[in-house]
Design brief:
Layout lengths: L1 H7 L2 E14 L2 E13 L3 E8 L4 H5 L6 H8 L4 E8 L21 E3 L9 H23 L10 H4 L5 H4 L10
Parallel strand pairs: 3-4
Antiparallel strand pairs: 1-2, 2-3, 4-5
Helix pairs in contact: 3-4
Length: 174
């Protein structure tokens, strides 16, 4: 039902598993976007599917960096960016589900409006992440210590966890 509601709004899947690469200030950013939708060959939506609970994303959507990262990678006018939970687990945070169809799929959208004006929210999120990365790399080039970025919960799965030192303190290894 969710996808049928999107189709009724004019959305169609443009591509899945979209590999992207952009260079910003000499840094190469690479990523794979789960799905890119298009409407009227003018508006694009970036969708990331989550197989577990997305309550965390609903509660902290404006602090999330994955969608902002994807927005920087994708060079077309993006008017929607969000997570769709593909799970039978109910959404416990009962916030309004923007872009909803008549379904039970939990959703978290970086821009809660259906309107193109919300593209400013997306552009601001993308610009803020780009600035944060630029500052971090400039500080590193200047020999300053790195500050840890990211979510500690995600760090347990990271192959290079020690690189950013998230979860490490002086004299202790976590």
């Amino acid at each position: 039902a969710w996808w049928q509601a999107r189709q009724a709004q004019g959305w169609r899947v443009l591509a899945s598993e979209v590999k992207q690469c952009q260079v910003f200030d000499g840094l190469t950013w690479r990523g794979t976007i789960d799905q890119v939708d298009v409407r009227d060959d003018a508006e694009y939506a970036l969708i990331d599917y989550k197989t577990g609970s997305i309550d965390h994303y609903v509660k902290n959507i404006n602090e999330d960096i994955q969608l902002a990262f994807y927005l920087n990678l994708y060079a077309h006018k993006t008017t929607q960016a969000g997570y769709i939970g593909v799970t039978d687990e109910p959404l416990t945070d009962k916030k309004e589900k923007p872009h909803q169809g008549d379904n039970n799929y939990p959703q978290a959208w970086l821009n809660p409006s259906l309107y193109v004006d919300a593209a400013d929210d997306l552009a601001n999120a993308a610009a803020a992440l780009k600035q944060q990365v630029a500052v971090s790399f400039n500080n590193m080039r200047d020999g300053e210590p790195l500050s840890a970025m990211g979510e500690l919960k995600a760090c347990q799965w990271c192959a290079v966890r020690g690189l950013c030192r998230k979860g490490y303190t002086v004299g202790e290894v976590a």
